[in-house]
Amino acid sequence: MHADISRITFRPDRHYSAVIAQQGRVQLDADANEQTAIQLVQARTTAADLIGQHGGPRGATGFELHFLGGSRELDDLSIGGGRYYVDGILLDATRPQPGVPVVDDAHDAHSTEEGEKDAPAETQPPATWTYWDQPDGHRDPERPGDRLPSQFPYLAYLKVWERSVTAAEDPLLREVALGSAMPDTAARLKVVWQVLPLPGSRLELADGANKDQVRAAFAKWVAAQAPSARMAARSERPEHADEDPCLVKPDARYRGQENQLYRVEIHEGGAAKDATFKWSRENGSVTFPVDELDGTWTELASLGSDDKLDLNVGDWVELVDSASLSRGEPLPLLRIEEIDLPGRRVRLSAEPDPSVGRRPELHPFLRRWDHRPGARHTGGGRTKQGTAKVRGGALRIEEGGWLPLEDGVFVYFEPGKSYRPGDYWTVAARTATGNVEWPTDAARRPLLQAPAGNHVHYAPLAWVLGEGSVADLRLAFAPLAAPVPAADAEALEAEATYEAEAAAAEKAAAAGSGARTAGADEQGQPEK
Q1: Which sign, positive or negative, has the C-alpha torsion 176, 181, 185, 189?
Q2: Can you tell me the distance from the alpha carbon of 204 to that of 219, in angstroms, rounded to the nearest whole number?
Q3: How far is residue 136's CA from residue 203's CA, in Å, rounded to a whole number?
Q4: pLDDT confidence of residue 33
Q5: pTM of the model
Protein backbone atom coordinates (compact mmCIF):
# COMPACT_ATOMS: atom_id res chain seq x y z
CA MET A 1 0.00 0.00 0.00
CA HIS A 2 1.24 3.50 -0.85
CA ALA A 3 0.47 5.17 2.48
CA ASP A 4 2.37 7.25 5.02
CA ILE A 5 2.89 4.49 7.60
CA SER A 6 5.75 3.83 10.01
CA ARG A 7 6.17 0.11 9.34
CA ILE A 8 4.27 -3.15 8.75
CA THR A 9 4.26 -5.45 11.78
CA PHE A 10 1.71 -8.12 10.75
CA ARG A 11 3.39 -11.54 10.55
CA PRO A 12 1.03 -14.46 9.88
CA ASP A 13 3.55 -17.01 11.16
CA ARG A 14 3.28 -15.55 14.70
CA HIS A 15 -0.42 -16.50 14.88
CA TYR A 16 -1.46 -13.43 16.86
CA SER A 17 -5.24 -13.20 17.24
CA ALA A 18 -5.56 -9.61 18.48
CA VAL A 19 -3.66 -6.44 19.35
CA ILE A 20 -4.00 -5.45 23.02
CA ALA A 21 -3.79 -1.71 23.75
CA GLN A 22 -2.10 -0.81 27.03
CA GLN A 23 -2.81 2.23 29.17
CA GLY A 24 -0.38 5.11 29.16
CA ARG A 25 1.43 3.89 26.04
CA VAL A 26 2.15 5.65 22.78
CA GLN A 27 -0.40 4.74 20.12
CA LEU A 28 1.20 3.72 16.81
CA ASP A 29 -0.31 3.39 13.36
CA ALA A 30 1.39 -0.01 12.99
CA ASP A 31 -0.60 -1.46 15.91
CA ALA A 32 -3.95 -0.36 14.51
CA ASN A 33 -3.01 -1.56 11.03
CA GLU A 34 -1.93 -4.94 12.40
CA GLN A 35 -5.30 -5.37 14.13
CA THR A 36 -7.02 -4.69 10.80
CA ALA A 37 -4.77 -7.18 9.05
CA ILE A 38 -5.43 -9.86 11.70
CA GLN A 39 -9.19 -9.45 11.34
CA LEU A 40 -9.06 -9.49 7.53
CA VAL A 41 -6.98 -12.66 7.45
CA GLN A 42 -9.23 -14.39 9.97
CA ALA A 43 -12.43 -13.45 8.13
CA ARG A 44 -11.11 -14.34 4.68
CA THR A 45 -9.54 -17.60 5.82
CA THR A 46 -12.83 -18.65 7.41
CA ALA A 47 -14.75 -17.74 4.26
CA ALA A 48 -12.29 -19.60 2.02
CA ASP A 49 -12.36 -22.68 4.27
CA LEU A 50 -16.17 -22.82 4.13
CA ILE A 51 -16.73 -21.70 0.53
CA GLY A 52 -13.63 -22.97 -1.24
CA GLN A 53 -11.39 -21.13 -3.65
CA HIS A 54 -14.34 -19.28 -5.18
CA GLY A 55 -18.13 -19.28 -5.10
CA GLY A 56 -21.26 -17.21 -4.63
CA PRO A 57 -24.37 -17.46 -2.43
CA ARG A 58 -27.19 -19.38 -4.10
CA GLY A 59 -29.88 -16.98 -5.22
CA ALA A 60 -27.52 -13.99 -5.20
CA THR A 61 -24.51 -15.32 -7.12
CA GLY A 62 -22.88 -12.47 -9.00
CA PHE A 63 -20.88 -12.22 -12.23
CA GLU A 64 -23.23 -14.18 -14.48
CA LEU A 65 -21.91 -13.48 -17.99
CA HIS A 66 -23.89 -13.21 -21.22
CA PHE A 67 -22.38 -12.68 -24.65
CA LEU A 68 -23.54 -9.50 -26.41
CA GLY A 69 -22.72 -9.64 -30.09
CA GLY A 70 -24.82 -9.41 -33.23
CA SER A 71 -25.12 -5.92 -34.72
CA ARG A 72 -22.78 -4.25 -32.25
CA GLU A 73 -19.51 -2.85 -33.52
CA LEU A 74 -17.55 -4.60 -30.78
CA ASP A 75 -18.42 -7.75 -28.88
CA ASP A 76 -19.38 -7.24 -25.26
CA LEU A 77 -20.25 -9.21 -22.14
CA SER A 78 -22.94 -8.33 -19.62
CA ILE A 79 -21.93 -8.85 -15.98
CA GLY A 80 -24.80 -9.87 -13.73
CA GLY A 81 -25.12 -8.29 -10.29
CA GLY A 82 -24.68 -10.14 -7.04
CA ARG A 83 -21.92 -11.31 -4.71
CA TYR A 84 -18.98 -13.64 -5.23
CA TYR A 85 -16.02 -14.72 -3.10
CA VAL A 86 -12.51 -15.33 -4.40
CA ASP A 87 -10.05 -16.73 -1.84
CA GLY A 88 -12.39 -15.40 0.84
CA ILE A 89 -12.45 -11.85 -0.59
CA LEU A 90 -15.98 -10.52 -1.02
CA LEU A 91 -16.81 -8.97 -4.41
CA ASP A 92 -20.03 -7.19 -5.30
CA ALA A 93 -20.98 -6.81 -8.96
CA THR A 94 -24.21 -4.92 -8.25
CA ARG A 95 -24.34 -1.73 -10.25
CA PRO A 96 -25.29 1.27 -8.05
CA GLN A 97 -28.35 3.16 -9.19
CA PRO A 98 -28.59 6.97 -9.04
CA GLY A 99 -30.51 8.60 -6.24
CA VAL A 100 -33.73 10.54 -6.60
CA PRO A 101 -33.22 14.33 -6.65
CA VAL A 102 -35.54 16.79 -4.95
CA VAL A 103 -37.88 18.53 -7.40
CA ASP A 104 -37.86 22.11 -6.18
CA ASP A 105 -39.08 25.01 -8.34
CA ALA A 106 -37.30 27.52 -6.14
CA HIS A 107 -33.98 25.69 -6.61
CA ASP A 108 -34.55 25.54 -10.37
CA ALA A 109 -35.25 29.27 -10.50
CA HIS A 110 -32.14 30.03 -8.41
CA SER A 111 -30.04 27.83 -10.72
CA THR A 112 -31.33 29.73 -13.75
CA GLU A 113 -30.47 33.07 -12.13
CA GLU A 114 -26.95 31.81 -11.35
CA GLY A 115 -26.50 30.89 -15.02
CA GLU A 116 -26.33 27.13 -14.55
CA LYS A 117 -27.09 25.04 -17.61
CA ASP A 118 -30.19 22.94 -17.71
CA ALA A 119 -29.65 19.41 -16.46
CA PRO A 120 -29.56 16.77 -19.18
CA ALA A 121 -32.67 14.74 -19.75
CA GLU A 122 -32.91 11.80 -17.37
CA THR A 123 -32.16 8.42 -18.88
CA GLN A 124 -32.68 4.99 -17.38
CA PRO A 125 -29.24 3.77 -16.23
CA PRO A 126 -28.10 0.26 -17.20
CA ALA A 127 -29.05 -2.40 -14.69
CA THR A 128 -25.73 -4.25 -14.89
CA TRP A 129 -22.10 -3.65 -15.69
CA THR A 130 -20.61 -4.74 -18.99
CA TYR A 131 -17.10 -5.69 -20.07
CA TRP A 132 -16.51 -2.21 -21.48
CA ASP A 133 -17.80 -0.13 -18.57
CA GLN A 134 -16.91 -2.32 -15.56
CA PRO A 135 -15.88 0.06 -12.76
CA ASP A 136 -12.22 -0.94 -12.38
CA GLY A 137 -11.61 -2.36 -15.84
CA HIS A 138 -10.97 0.87 -17.77
CA ARG A 139 -11.01 -0.98 -21.08
CA ASP A 140 -10.32 1.13 -24.17
CA PRO A 141 -12.01 0.13 -27.48
CA GLU A 142 -9.21 1.89 -29.38
CA ARG A 143 -6.66 -0.56 -27.98
CA PRO A 144 -6.80 -3.89 -29.85
CA GLY A 145 -5.38 -5.70 -26.82
CA ASP A 146 -8.42 -4.69 -24.77
CA ARG A 147 -10.97 -6.17 -27.17
CA LEU A 148 -12.60 -9.51 -26.61
CA PRO A 149 -11.02 -12.34 -28.65
CA SER A 150 -12.51 -12.85 -32.09
CA GLN A 151 -11.70 -16.56 -31.98
CA PHE A 152 -13.87 -18.93 -29.98
CA PRO A 153 -13.73 -20.44 -27.47
CA TYR A 154 -12.16 -18.20 -24.85
CA LEU A 155 -12.28 -18.02 -21.07
CA ALA A 156 -13.69 -15.05 -19.15
CA TYR A 157 -12.17 -14.86 -15.67
CA LEU A 158 -11.96 -12.65 -12.60
CA LYS A 159 -8.75 -10.91 -11.57
CA VAL A 160 -8.84 -9.57 -8.01
CA TRP A 161 -6.39 -7.60 -5.88
CA GLU A 162 -6.25 -4.69 -3.44
CA ARG A 163 -4.66 -1.27 -3.74
CA SER A 164 -4.43 1.73 -1.47
CA VAL A 165 -6.39 4.94 -2.02
CA THR A 166 -5.56 8.29 -0.43
CA ALA A 167 -7.17 11.73 -0.56
CA ALA A 168 -5.06 12.54 -3.62
CA GLU A 169 -7.20 10.07 -5.58
CA ASP A 170 -10.43 10.37 -3.61
CA PRO A 171 -10.88 13.92 -2.25
CA LEU A 172 -13.92 12.81 -0.21
CA LEU A 173 -11.54 11.12 2.21
CA ARG A 174 -10.27 14.51 3.37
CA GLU A 175 -11.99 16.17 6.32
CA VAL A 176 -12.52 19.73 5.08
CA ALA A 177 -12.99 20.97 8.66
CA LEU A 178 -9.26 20.42 9.24
CA GLY A 179 -8.40 22.98 6.57
CA SER A 180 -6.29 22.70 3.45
CA ALA A 181 -3.03 23.21 5.35
CA MET A 182 -3.46 19.96 7.29
CA PRO A 183 -2.50 16.63 5.71
CA ASP A 184 -5.10 13.98 5.01
CA THR A 185 -5.81 11.42 7.71
CA ALA A 186 -6.26 7.70 7.04
CA ALA A 187 -5.92 5.95 3.70
CA ARG A 188 -8.14 3.14 2.42
CA LEU A 189 -7.70 -0.30 0.90
CA LYS A 190 -9.83 -0.92 -2.18
CA VAL A 191 -10.76 -4.31 -3.62
CA VAL A 192 -10.29 -4.16 -7.39
CA TRP A 193 -11.99 -6.71 -9.64
CA GLN A 194 -11.81 -7.05 -13.39
CA VAL A 195 -13.50 -9.41 -15.84
CA LEU A 196 -10.86 -10.28 -18.45
CA PRO A 197 -10.63 -12.66 -21.42
CA LEU A 198 -8.09 -15.44 -21.93
CA PRO A 199 -7.79 -17.00 -25.42
CA GLY A 200 -8.61 -20.69 -25.36
CA SER A 201 -5.37 -21.49 -27.18
CA ARG A 202 -3.40 -20.52 -24.04
CA LEU A 203 -5.09 -23.23 -21.99
CA GLU A 204 -3.95 -26.10 -24.25
CA LEU A 205 -7.32 -27.83 -24.17
CA ALA A 206 -8.64 -30.45 -26.54
CA ASP A 207 -11.83 -29.81 -28.47
CA GLY A 208 -14.96 -30.59 -26.52
CA ALA A 209 -13.37 -30.12 -23.09
CA ASN A 210 -15.87 -30.21 -20.25
CA LYS A 211 -16.19 -27.69 -17.44
CA ASP A 212 -13.96 -29.57 -15.00
CA GLN A 213 -11.20 -29.80 -17.60
CA VAL A 214 -11.48 -26.07 -18.33
CA ARG A 215 -11.25 -25.26 -14.59
CA ALA A 216 -8.20 -27.52 -14.22
CA ALA A 217 -6.46 -25.94 -17.22
CA PHE A 218 -7.17 -22.47 -15.86
CA ALA A 219 -5.74 -23.41 -12.44
CA LYS A 220 -2.55 -24.52 -14.22
CA TRP A 221 -2.38 -21.20 -16.10
CA VAL A 222 -2.88 -19.24 -12.84
CA ALA A 223 -0.01 -21.12 -11.18
CA ALA A 224 2.28 -20.03 -14.02
CA GLN A 225 1.43 -16.34 -13.46
CA ALA A 226 2.87 -16.19 -9.95
CA PRO A 227 6.20 -14.31 -9.86
CA SER A 228 9.14 -16.04 -8.24
CA ALA A 229 11.13 -12.94 -7.25
CA ARG A 230 12.60 -12.69 -3.74
CA MET A 231 14.59 -9.88 -2.17
CA ALA A 232 16.71 -9.29 0.92
CA ALA A 233 17.82 -6.08 2.62
CA ARG A 234 20.53 -5.06 5.06
CA SER A 235 22.45 -2.00 6.25
CA GLU A 236 26.19 -1.50 5.91
CA ARG A 237 28.41 1.25 7.24
CA PRO A 238 29.62 3.22 4.20
CA GLU A 239 33.36 3.35 3.50
CA HIS A 240 33.52 7.13 4.02
CA ALA A 241 31.23 7.29 7.06
CA ASP A 242 33.94 9.00 9.16
CA GLU A 243 33.83 11.95 6.78
CA ASP A 244 30.06 12.32 7.22
CA PRO A 245 29.24 15.22 9.56
CA CYS A 246 25.74 13.88 10.23
CA LEU A 247 24.86 13.51 13.90
CA VAL A 248 24.47 9.75 14.02
CA LYS A 249 26.22 7.10 16.07
CA PRO A 250 29.76 6.51 14.77
CA ASP A 251 29.17 2.75 14.43
CA ALA A 252 25.72 3.07 12.84
CA ARG A 253 25.32 1.16 9.61
CA TYR A 254 22.15 3.03 8.67
CA ARG A 255 23.37 6.65 8.36
CA GLY A 256 20.05 8.43 7.88
CA GLN A 257 19.00 11.11 10.37
CA GLU A 258 15.32 10.09 10.37
CA ASN A 259 13.34 6.88 10.70
CA GLN A 260 12.17 5.79 7.27
CA LEU A 261 10.08 3.08 5.63
CA TYR A 262 11.75 2.30 2.33
CA ARG A 263 9.60 0.87 -0.41
CA VAL A 264 11.26 -1.08 -3.21
CA GLU A 265 8.74 -1.60 -6.02
CA ILE A 266 8.98 -3.38 -9.35
CA HIS A 267 8.28 -0.99 -12.21
CA GLU A 268 8.57 -3.11 -15.35
CA GLY A 269 8.24 -6.86 -14.99
CA GLY A 270 9.53 -9.96 -16.71
CA ALA A 271 12.93 -11.58 -16.47
CA ALA A 272 15.78 -9.72 -14.78
CA LYS A 273 17.15 -8.47 -18.10
CA ASP A 274 13.86 -6.67 -18.77
CA ALA A 275 12.77 -5.73 -15.25
CA THR A 276 13.31 -2.41 -13.45
CA PHE A 277 12.60 -1.10 -9.96
CA LYS A 278 12.13 2.19 -8.16
CA TRP A 279 12.29 3.09 -4.49
CA SER A 280 10.95 5.64 -2.03
CA ARG A 281 12.06 6.48 1.50
CA GLU A 282 8.44 7.46 2.32
CA ASN A 283 6.76 4.22 1.16
CA GLY A 284 5.69 5.96 -2.05
CA SER A 285 3.26 8.18 -0.13
CA VAL A 286 4.49 11.58 -1.40
CA THR A 287 1.90 12.63 -3.97
CA PHE A 288 0.78 15.86 -5.67
CA PRO A 289 -2.72 16.14 -7.20
CA VAL A 290 -2.66 17.47 -10.76
CA ASP A 291 -4.92 20.38 -11.69
CA GLU A 292 -3.95 20.75 -15.34
CA LEU A 293 -1.56 19.45 -18.00
CA ASP A 294 -0.08 21.72 -20.66
CA GLY A 295 2.55 19.90 -22.71
CA THR A 296 5.48 19.23 -20.42
CA TRP A 297 4.18 21.70 -17.82
CA THR A 298 2.02 20.32 -15.00
CA GLU A 299 0.01 22.54 -12.66
CA LEU A 300 -0.33 21.02 -9.20
CA ALA A 301 -2.76 21.62 -6.34
CA SER A 302 0.25 21.96 -4.02
CA LEU A 303 4.03 21.74 -4.18
CA GLY A 304 4.32 20.00 -0.81
CA SER A 305 4.05 20.82 2.86
CA ASP A 306 7.77 21.05 3.77
CA ASP A 307 11.27 20.51 2.37
CA LYS A 308 11.08 16.77 3.09
CA LEU A 309 7.82 16.20 1.21
CA ASP A 310 8.17 18.61 -1.70
CA LEU A 311 9.55 18.43 -5.23
CA ASN A 312 13.02 19.41 -6.37
CA VAL A 313 14.71 19.62 -9.75
CA GLY A 314 16.08 16.19 -10.60
CA ASP A 315 13.34 14.23 -8.77
CA TRP A 316 11.73 11.34 -10.63
CA VAL A 317 7.93 11.27 -10.65
CA GLU A 318 5.23 9.00 -11.95
CA LEU A 319 2.00 10.46 -13.39
CA VAL A 320 -0.89 8.13 -12.54
CA ASP A 321 -4.67 8.20 -12.15
CA SER A 322 -7.38 5.75 -11.16
CA ALA A 323 -7.39 4.11 -14.58
CA SER A 324 -3.64 3.55 -14.83
CA LEU A 325 -3.47 2.24 -11.25
CA SER A 326 -6.28 -0.22 -11.90
CA ARG A 327 -4.72 -1.43 -15.14
CA GLY A 328 -1.34 -1.89 -13.47
CA GLU A 329 0.58 -1.00 -16.61
CA PRO A 330 3.79 0.96 -15.88
CA LEU A 331 4.59 4.10 -17.84
CA PRO A 332 8.03 5.77 -18.12
CA LEU A 333 9.01 7.87 -15.13
CA LEU A 334 9.56 11.56 -15.76
CA ARG A 335 12.19 13.90 -14.29
CA ILE A 336 11.48 17.33 -12.80
CA GLU A 337 13.38 19.83 -14.97
CA GLU A 338 12.06 23.17 -13.69
CA ILE A 339 9.82 24.44 -10.88
CA ASP A 340 7.56 27.52 -11.05
CA LEU A 341 6.78 28.22 -7.38
CA PRO A 342 4.28 31.11 -7.83
CA GLY A 343 2.33 29.17 -10.44
CA ARG A 344 2.54 25.82 -8.61
CA ARG A 345 3.87 24.29 -11.82
CA VAL A 346 6.65 21.88 -12.71
CA ARG A 347 8.20 21.16 -16.09
CA LEU A 348 8.72 17.48 -16.83
CA SER A 349 11.45 15.90 -18.95
CA ALA A 350 8.86 14.74 -21.49
CA GLU A 351 5.18 15.07 -22.20
CA PRO A 352 3.18 12.48 -20.23
CA ASP A 353 1.67 9.50 -22.02
CA PRO A 354 -1.65 10.44 -23.70
CA SER A 355 -3.46 7.64 -21.85
CA VAL A 356 -3.08 9.23 -18.40
CA GLY A 357 -3.76 12.54 -16.70
CA ARG A 358 -6.22 14.09 -19.16
CA ARG A 359 -9.47 13.20 -17.37
CA PRO A 360 -10.08 15.14 -14.13
CA GLU A 361 -12.72 12.65 -12.95
CA LEU A 362 -9.94 10.05 -12.67
CA HIS A 363 -8.02 12.30 -10.24
CA PRO A 364 -4.51 12.33 -11.75
CA PHE A 365 -1.54 12.96 -9.47
CA LEU A 366 2.25 12.80 -9.41
CA ARG A 367 3.97 10.28 -7.17
CA ARG A 368 7.55 11.09 -6.16
CA TRP A 369 10.25 8.40 -6.15
CA ASP A 370 13.59 8.94 -4.43
CA HIS A 371 16.06 6.85 -6.41
CA ARG A 372 18.89 8.67 -8.13
CA PRO A 373 20.28 7.16 -11.32
CA GLY A 374 24.04 7.40 -11.08
CA ALA A 375 24.40 5.93 -7.58
CA ARG A 376 27.55 3.87 -7.18
CA HIS A 377 27.29 0.11 -6.67
CA THR A 378 29.56 -0.68 -3.76
CA GLY A 379 29.77 -3.31 -1.05
CA GLY A 380 33.28 -4.50 -0.28
CA GLY A 381 33.67 -6.63 -3.40
CA ARG A 382 30.31 -8.35 -3.02
CA THR A 383 28.97 -6.56 -6.07
CA LYS A 384 30.46 -5.04 -9.18
CA GLN A 385 31.62 -1.45 -9.06
CA GLY A 386 29.81 0.84 -11.42
CA THR A 387 26.89 3.21 -11.95
CA ALA A 388 23.28 2.13 -11.57
CA LYS A 389 21.75 1.49 -14.97
CA VAL A 390 18.51 3.23 -15.91
CA ARG A 391 15.66 2.46 -18.29
CA GLY A 392 12.55 4.62 -18.53
CA GLY A 393 13.59 6.52 -15.40
CA ALA A 394 13.70 3.37 -13.26
CA LEU A 395 16.70 1.32 -12.16
CA ARG A 396 17.57 -1.93 -13.90
CA ILE A 397 17.49 -5.00 -11.71
CA GLU A 398 20.89 -6.59 -11.23
CA GLU A 399 20.62 -9.96 -9.52
CA GLY A 400 23.12 -11.63 -7.24
CA GLY A 401 24.71 -8.52 -5.70
CA TRP A 402 23.98 -5.90 -3.06
CA LEU A 403 22.59 -2.70 -4.60
CA PRO A 404 22.75 0.56 -2.60
CA LEU A 405 19.71 2.73 -2.02
CA GLU A 406 21.07 5.47 0.29
CA ASP A 407 22.56 6.03 3.75
CA GLY A 408 23.93 2.51 4.01
CA VAL A 409 20.73 0.66 2.98
CA PHE A 410 21.30 -2.17 0.49
CA VAL A 411 18.99 -4.62 -1.29
CA TYR A 412 19.66 -7.95 -2.97
CA PHE A 413 17.63 -9.67 -5.72
CA GLU A 414 17.83 -13.45 -5.95
CA PRO A 415 19.23 -14.66 -9.31
CA GLY A 416 17.14 -16.37 -11.96
CA LYS A 417 13.71 -15.08 -10.99
CA SER A 418 10.77 -13.34 -12.66
CA TYR A 419 9.17 -10.05 -11.65
CA ARG A 420 5.66 -8.55 -11.79
CA PRO A 421 4.91 -4.79 -12.01
CA GLY A 422 3.63 -3.40 -8.72
CA ASP A 423 5.14 -6.07 -6.46
CA TYR A 424 6.96 -4.44 -3.56
CA TRP A 425 8.96 -4.91 -0.38
CA THR A 426 9.22 -2.53 2.59
CA VAL A 427 12.37 -1.95 4.67
CA ALA A 428 12.09 -0.09 8.00
CA ALA A 429 15.26 1.86 8.87
CA ARG A 430 15.70 3.10 12.45
CA THR A 431 18.10 5.69 13.87
CA ALA A 432 17.92 4.22 17.41
CA THR A 433 19.65 1.03 16.26
CA GLY A 434 21.49 2.39 13.25
CA ASN A 435 20.14 -0.58 11.34
CA VAL A 436 17.28 -1.82 9.19
CA GLU A 437 14.58 -4.23 10.34
CA TRP A 438 14.77 -7.36 8.20
CA PRO A 439 14.46 -11.09 9.04
CA THR A 440 17.78 -12.89 9.55
CA ASP A 441 18.94 -16.40 10.40
CA ALA A 442 20.91 -17.44 13.51
CA ALA A 443 24.11 -16.18 11.88
CA ARG A 444 22.44 -12.78 11.21
CA ARG A 445 22.38 -13.34 7.48
CA PRO A 446 19.46 -11.55 5.75
CA LEU A 447 16.72 -13.92 4.58
CA LEU A 448 15.21 -13.77 1.11
CA GLN A 449 11.57 -12.72 1.24
CA ALA A 450 8.70 -12.92 -1.24
CA PRO A 451 7.00 -9.60 -2.08
CA ALA A 452 4.75 -8.08 0.58
CA GLY A 453 2.23 -7.44 -2.23
CA ASN A 454 0.44 -7.14 -4.51
CA HIS A 455 -1.39 -10.43 -4.01
CA VAL A 456 -3.45 -11.26 -7.10
CA HIS A 457 -6.34 -13.73 -7.05
CA TYR A 458 -8.14 -15.42 -9.96
CA ALA A 459 -11.39 -17.30 -10.58
CA PRO A 460 -12.95 -18.67 -13.80
CA LEU A 461 -16.36 -17.31 -14.74
CA ALA A 462 -17.42 -18.59 -18.16
CA TRP A 463 -16.21 -20.59 -21.15
CA VAL A 464 -17.44 -18.53 -24.12
CA LEU A 465 -18.08 -20.96 -26.98
CA GLY A 466 -19.61 -18.52 -29.45
CA GLU A 467 -22.42 -16.05 -29.91
CA GLY A 468 -25.19 -16.91 -27.51
CA SER A 469 -23.33 -19.92 -26.13
CA VAL A 470 -21.68 -19.48 -22.74
CA ALA A 471 -20.81 -22.32 -20.34
CA ASP A 472 -21.08 -21.06 -16.76
CA LEU A 473 -18.02 -21.96 -14.64
CA ARG A 474 -19.11 -20.28 -11.43
CA LEU A 475 -19.76 -22.20 -8.25
CA ALA A 476 -22.56 -21.59 -5.74
CA PHE A 477 -23.13 -22.51 -2.13
CA ALA A 478 -26.35 -22.77 -0.10
CA PRO A 479 -26.85 -21.12 3.30
CA LEU A 480 -25.94 -23.26 6.29
CA ALA A 481 -29.19 -22.42 8.10
CA ALA A 482 -32.23 -24.65 7.35
CA PRO A 483 -35.68 -25.26 8.86
CA VAL A 484 -35.83 -27.50 11.88
CA PRO A 485 -36.81 -30.97 10.51
CA ALA A 486 -40.13 -32.56 11.45
CA ALA A 487 -39.90 -35.18 14.23
CA ASP A 488 -39.93 -38.87 13.22
CA ALA A 489 -42.43 -41.48 14.54
CA GLU A 490 -40.20 -42.53 17.41
CA ALA A 491 -39.78 -38.95 18.60
CA LEU A 492 -43.51 -38.33 18.29
CA GLU A 493 -44.30 -41.48 20.36
CA ALA A 494 -41.80 -40.45 23.04
CA GLU A 495 -43.33 -37.00 23.16
CA ALA A 496 -46.84 -38.45 23.52
CA THR A 497 -45.68 -40.77 26.30
CA TYR A 498 -44.07 -37.87 28.12
CA GLU A 499 -47.22 -35.78 27.82
CA ALA A 500 -49.40 -38.67 29.07
CA GLU A 501 -47.12 -39.26 32.06
CA ALA A 502 -47.11 -35.56 32.85
CA ALA A 503 -50.93 -35.45 32.70
CA ALA A 504 -51.23 -38.52 34.95
CA ALA A 505 -48.81 -37.02 37.45
CA GLU A 506 -50.76 -33.77 37.44
CA LYS A 507 -54.06 -35.67 37.96
CA ALA A 508 -52.60 -37.71 40.82
CA ALA A 509 -51.28 -34.57 42.45
CA ALA A 510 -54.72 -32.97 42.19
CA ALA A 511 -56.42 -36.07 43.71
CA GLY A 512 -54.00 -36.15 46.63
CA SER A 513 -54.62 -32.50 47.31
CA GLY A 514 -58.40 -33.09 47.38
CA ALA A 515 -58.08 -35.96 49.89
CA ARG A 516 -56.00 -33.87 52.26
CA THR A 517 -58.55 -31.07 52.14
CA ALA A 518 -61.45 -33.45 52.98
CA GLY A 519 -59.57 -34.93 55.98
CA ALA A 520 -58.93 -31.49 57.33
CA ASP A 521 -62.61 -30.66 57.09
CA GLU A 522 -63.60 -33.79 59.07
CA GLN A 523 -61.16 -33.01 61.82
CA GLY A 524 -62.60 -29.60 62.20
CA GLN A 525 -66.26 -30.78 62.95
CA PRO A 526 -67.41 -30.35 66.67
CA GLU A 527 -68.46 -33.44 68.68
CA LYS A 528 -72.20 -33.99 69.38
Answers
A1: positive
A2: 12
A3: 25
A4: 96
A5: 0.86
